[in-house]
Amino acid sequence: MASLQQASISLQPKHLSSSQHPRSLPSLNLSFSATFPSLKLSTTRPLHGGAKMSASAASSYATALADVAKSNNTLDATSSDVEKVEKIFSDPQVLEFFTNPTIDVLKKRQVLDEIVSSSELQPHTANFLNILVDAKRIDLIKEIVKEFELVYNELTDTELAVVSSVVKLESQHLAQIAKQVQKLTGAKNVRIKTLIDPSLVAGFTIRYGSSGSKLIDMSVKKQLEEIAAQLDLGDIQLVV
């Protein structure tokens, strides 16, 4: 079983000379402490143990970022940053670039600097990403995003509802869905996340609850499946 050790991380990128890094990110006098698993893995179940370590590390990083955001009263803004980061790193080419061990760290930091500028990320979010690059843990970014959402939802009493539809739904429809989910869950806030799913044919689905365990299916796909199940024509003989 992986042992745990305490690690203190400063949300401040390493100092570089102007010749090394032309546009350094703004530094903050912030720090956070988090618990990270050591590199000792169980040899009997290496894959399972590795997965548990990654989940633990992602949770620790996400919690640390949320703690800093909470202390700065920027929790909502940081949540918005994380959404931007999720979209950026959903591009396979972007993720491959930052996880490629043959690419120089300084080059990665320069590209990250450009991303930060164009996406208008907060300084502590930018520094956090630099930490992941320096620590070679940027490969955990998708898991960190998921863990941050869980922490954010818990801190703000927010219910996440994932709405899947064939086409983009209008804002008033999403507002109605949010109200309905709020009634069902009693949550103080409801956050809607939208996905496009052509397989639904028409209509929409809503997933909410712990890990999306609850489902409201208003899709035509479901209706067609129910009709097909009811119309069992296997034993019917056609009369000619």
TrEMBL record:
<feature type="region of interest" description="Disordered">
    <location>
        <begin position="1"/>
        <end position="22"/>
    </location>
</feature>
<dbReference type="Pfam" id="PF00213">
    <property type="entry name" value="OSCP"/>
</dbReference>
<keyword id="KW-0375">Hydrogen ion transport</keyword>
<comment type="subunit">
    <text>F-type ATPases have 2 components, CF(1) - the catalytic core - and CF(0) - the membrane proton channel. CF(1) has five subunits: alpha(3), beta(3), gamma(1), delta(1), epsilon(1). CF(0) has three main subunits: a, b and c.</text>
</comment>
<keyword id="KW-0813">Transport</keyword>
<protein>
    <recommendedName>
        <fullName>ATP synthase delta chain, chloroplastic</fullName>
    </recommendedName>
</protein>
<dbReference type="InterPro" id="IPR026015">
    <property type="entry name" value="ATP_synth_OSCP/delta_N_sf"/>
</dbReference>
<dbReference type="GO" id="GO:0016020">
    <property type="term" value="C:membrane"/>
</dbReference>
<dbReference type="InterPro" id="IPR000711">
    <property type="entry name" value="ATPase_OSCP/dsu"/>
</dbReference>
<keyword id="KW-0406">Ion transport</keyword>
<keyword id="KW-0066">ATP synthesis</keyword>
<keyword id="KW-0472">Membrane</keyword>
<comment type="similarity">
    <text>Belongs to the ATPase delta chain family.</text>
</comment>
<dbReference type="GO" id="GO:0046933">
    <property type="term" value="F:proton-transporting ATP synthase activity, rotational mechanism"/>
</dbReference>
<dbReference type="InterPro" id="IPR020781">
    <property type="entry name" value="ATPase_OSCP/d_CS"/>
</dbReference>
